[in-house]
Amino acid sequence: MIDADRITAEAFRLFEQEKYSACLDLIQSIPPRSIDTRIRILEAICLYSVGSLDEAEVCLRDLRSKVPDSSEVCLYLGKVLERKGDEGARAEFAEAVRLAPDQTEGIRRYARYLTGAGDHRAALCLLKRLVLLTGKGEDIAGLMLCYSALGFFEEGIARYKKAGAPDECFRIYLNLLLASEKFQELADEIEKSPNKDDHDLIILSCESLVHINSDKADQEFLIQLRKNPSAELASHYARYLESQGLIREALGVWSTWLAKSENPAYQLQGASLIETVSGPEQALELYSQVLFGKDIHEHLNLNIWLSSFRRLLVETRGSTVALDEALTRIRPDLQPSILVGIAEWCEEERRHEDAKRLFLQAFRSDLTNSGFSYAQYLGRNSEKREQKKILGYILKTIRKARDLEMIAGKILTLPEPEPDLISFLNQRFEGYVSLLSQEGRELYARCLSMETKHELQAGSPDKALKHALTGLSVVPVDASSVAELLFALLVESKTQVLPDFLPSQICPVTKPPGSVSTTGQISFSWLDPGEGAVVEYLRKHRVCNEMDLRKVAGTRRVAGLMNRIMRKSEEHGIHLADKEGCSEFGEVYRYAGP
After folding, report:
1. For the residues of 149-216, what is the DSSP string, one character each?
2. Where does the source fall among the domains of life (predicted)?
3. Sign of the Cα pseudo-torsion (172, 177, 183, 189, in order)
């Protein structure tokens, strides 16, 4: 007879020794009836630790329904989803912190996730609380980085000094001094540092000298570049020389250390220098080589480089010939943003056939950014119906919260977005509420305020009231102007509804005996009862195969039923399920809805 208690104790011992595979083998030898929740959690953590992410997710999803108040389960489910690139990690980390608001590991992991996602506004309050709870240098460093990303440089410096200048935060502190233009203080701090010969500190030291003593900076750059040659240091030196009007010297530095770099930013740093010294033809050749080469990737400066390329081409060839030459460089695998740039050039020259062809080519490669650029082109050329169709397609096709936020921000820049487009955008937002960043929630609130106005103008104050209340529930605390607008619209909506009244008798709503609570369920009224039962089962278990769903659906034709559910959901702007492939038990489906 197997001694389950002894095996359990041994499993925990192996886990503490980080022998996760051995621990899993031991857990699998325990009789199923003897496996309690603690062992199941241990099994899930071991599966995560050995990289069996799919199995770990299934295990944790099951535990999530059995022990919904376990912050540990939520935390590890968040970790699993994060490693799989699933945005649902955000909701799980948030739930872990909600269940255990003083549990530092959960707060730290959630804050780290938000920072990695670029949502520094949301991470800030978490990091403040974390520092309050732990006072650790690594947590103070995270808070200082957050301050830096938000542009709160003085707050970051003050936090460093208040914490007693922890070593883990020193480099962040130096960067904050540079950002706040405290150059003398920066130079003094580097001079006192025992690590002043470190590469990053050398660059910061040279940058501070540029503003304190320009002549000394020139000498220091040269000395350090000979001692510790690097492309980054050479780039700083070349920029310094160019700012001093020493163009030939800057070109010499670029030619020696940067011209053969694989980084397009370093390569094209020499373009303006070459143009000044050797003329536009040589600069144009460099732009052509880099921008239309096979290794160019998306870059923040791509539009600036393309604009310079266009200017040089027009100066040397003339407007018409320049555009013809640019069109000859088009390839099927060209970066979408370059295609969009040349398409806009074609539009300016009234060559709409070429413009539309290039916009469509970019749209096929990049649904969101290039798709929106194409929609803008259609709007500028009075093709409003086609513009609305393209924007609707983009919104319907988007699968990630970040993409939805990005396209929503772009739609709100349009002169007068159509009411039904804003309404559809709000429907899409509704399915992603728990995954939205602070910026995303503010965008959602703005869209709801717009729909509230539309409903008031259409004479539907009841609907307007609902949208205003929803907007107030999602608007971030720091978006005060949006909140004030929503509140004003809420008051206006209430004044247009029937006069306020109180019912003569307020009776508490009581559930009939034996009724089952539906808390946590989501109702999709456009599904029939059988489809609704399948969706709820899939939502609970997250990943199911055909054999699982046959019992719930009461039919063997699960594939057809799932196709019907997915089609209906797409028609309503919601993505409910994905096909994950095929197993020995038939098609495998993963829940992907709210």
Report:
1. HHT-HHHHHHHHHHTT--GGGHHHHHHHHHHTT-HHHHHHHHHH-TTTTSHHHHHHHHHHHHHH-HHH
2. Archaea
3. negative
Copy the structure tokens of residue 445: 């609130």
For residue 218, give the nearest of 199, 204, 232, 238 by alpha carbon: 238
Parallel/antiparallel/unpaired status of strands 586-591 and 543-545: antiparallel
Cα distance between residue 345 and residue 342, in whole Å: 5
What tokens were used for 588?
Answer: 């495998």
CA angle 564, 565, 570 (to 5 degrees): 100
CATH number of 529-591: 3.90.1150
Task: Round to whole Å and give the CA distance between 68 and 50.
Answer: 25
Q: Are 590 and 543 in contact (CB under 8 A)?
A: yes
d(C-alpha 73, C-alpha 64), whole Å: 6
pLDDT tens string 140-160: 999 999 999 999 999 999 999
In eight-state DSSP terms, residue 584 is T
CA 8 to CA 540: how far, in whole Å? 28
Question: CA 127 → CA 71, 94, 219, 403, distances in Å?
Answer: 19, 14, 42, 26
Give per-residue pLDDT as tens, 236-289: 999 999 999 999 999 999 999 999 998 999 999 999 999 999 999 999 999 999
Angle, vertex CA 130, rays to CA 129 and CA 134, nearest 5: 120
Report d(CA 433, CA 415) in Å as an integer: 26
Distances 409 to 144, 167, 346, 412 between C-alpha atoms, Å: 28, 40, 26, 5
Contact 123, 111 (CB under 8 A): yes
One-letter identity of residue 512: P
pLDDT of res. 520: 45
**Residues 181, 206, 265, 255: is their CA dihedral positive or negative?**
positive
DSSP 3-state of 465? helix
